[in-house]
Known about the structure:
With 52 residues, the protein is mostly helical. The chain has one helix and no strands. The chain has one helix spanning 24-32. The longest helix has 9 residues, at 24-32. It is flat.
Amino acid sequence: MQHPGTPAPASTVAGLYVVDVPGLDEALRLAARVPTAAYGTVQVRRVVQFEG
């Protein structure tokens, strides 16, 4: 239990992959192959590319 006034625990980024794939399904297939997916958390996020 967290005591009042205690800051929330921070997240740690253990690695970062940037891949160019045609869609979410392929991104999820690749994410499932990351070794830490078997026992940890893998997040899949879209990268927004701004033109200008």
